[in-house]
Amino acid sequence: MKLPSCLKRNKILGISLPTFISGSFLLFLVTLSINVSENLNSLWLLGQTDLFYQINSTIDKIKLSLQPKQIAIGFWGDVMLARNVELLSDIHGTNYSFTKITNQFLANNYNIINFEGTISNKHSRTLSNTMSFSVTDKLVPELASVNITHASLANNHALDFGPIALKNTTQKLLASNIIAFGNPNEINNDSVVYIDLGSYRLSVLALHTLYSTPLDEDLIKIFKKLNETSDIQFVYIHWGEEYKSAHTEKQFALAQKLIVLGADAIIGHHPHVVEDIGLIDGVPVFYSLGNTIFDQYFSLAVQSGYSVNFFIRQQNLEFTLFPFTSIDNHSQPRPMKKGEQDRFLEELASKSNLSLRENIKQAKLIFPFELASSS
């Protein structure tokens, strides 16, 4: 019997065992434990000696190491670091807007944001009520420090200062190891990012639809490629109408089209408020996550949002919802307290697809998925 390398020399996962215990005997115990007893209580019948406590603990660790690692991806809404957000960071420090939700970012392997603005070579602070967002490059390292790994530029502010500034934005983000993807005008190779999930490959397509709806032939072409090169396909989309708490007919029609083409989840942003969660042919549609970081303060709705944290568990696509609010301090989101979260999820559930309501209240959605491992 050929043993795994971790069973050689009677040292497993850093724990040394007595030399008279052979690798074959240990492998037998591991197999017996996995097949017969999930909680390993049966091994305790062998005697409560230090030796068997050690074996028991070791087998627990081996079992954990044999399980596929769960890779978590956080999807967030609009992040705008210009105007008053820049002013607040000058006063309180560059980490001001992130400090209370840093742990939520760090809990994920990857985090994807919609980057609202442009990092221009000639930056000047954006004045209040101005709609062209110039972002200082000194805030970019803060994005990286909280583990923001991807930034979509498929939105209506990526070209605020023209194509040269857009290129500079991409370069400045990449200099901090943040992958910029998505094009504000068209669907091309930059529209897609791939993320390795271990045995599976996820593709995320960034779309911007405020000024025009993508052409059918362009969508068909890109989804043909995605279906051939990835196991799971998500769409991360800038769409909808500002300050509407429910999706529009146009959003629904486009969502239907994307799902027919192969989308396994659709995650939206732009309206600056949270919209409902839909379900089309078994595929979840998170119509709008609301603001993540912004300088809008005129209502509770524009200061409330949530992230969608995605991972694969036991052949299921799982999505957990993380609500937050910046109602206490301008442009500084924090996790909602228990009562706030319950009310938020209750309201979100009440306007969402009927079959999802109870799950939304529990902040977790699970969808069975037939996954074919990438080769």
Question: Could you characterize the architecture of this molecule?
Answer:
The chain crosses the membrane at residues 12-34. InterPro entries: Capsule_synth_CapA, CW_Biosynth-Accessory, Metallo-depent_PP-like. This is Capsule synthesis protein CapA domain-containing protein. Keywords: Membrane, Transmembrane, Transmembrane helix. It comes from Candidatus Kaiserbacteria bacterium RIFOXYD1_FULL_42_15. The protein contains ten helices and 17 strands. It is globular and about 50 Å long. Mean pLDDT is 86; it is low at 1-53 and 55-68. With 375 residues, it is α/β, with parallel strands linked by helices. The chain has helices at 23-36, 50-66, 83-92, 102-106, 140-145, 162-175, 216-229, 249-261, 338-350, 357-361; strands spanning 11-12, 15-16, 73-79, 110-115, 150-152, 179-181, 192-196, 201-208, 232-238, 265-269, 277-280, 283-286, 291-293, 304-313, 316-325, 334-335, 364-368. It starts with 10 loop residues before the first strand and ends in a 7-residue tail after the last strand. It has two domains: 5-66, no CATH class; 73-368, Purple Acid Phosphatase, chain A, domain 2 (4-Layer Sandwich), CATH 3.60.21. The chain is 30% helix and 23% strand. Strand 4 (110-115), helix 5 (140-145) and strand 5 (150-152) form a beta-alpha-beta unit. The strands form three sheets. Strands 3, 4, 5, 6, 13, 14, 15, 16 and 17 form a nine-stranded mixed β-sheet that branches. It has a six-stranded mixed β-sheet with strand order 7-8-9-10-12-11, covered by helices on one side.
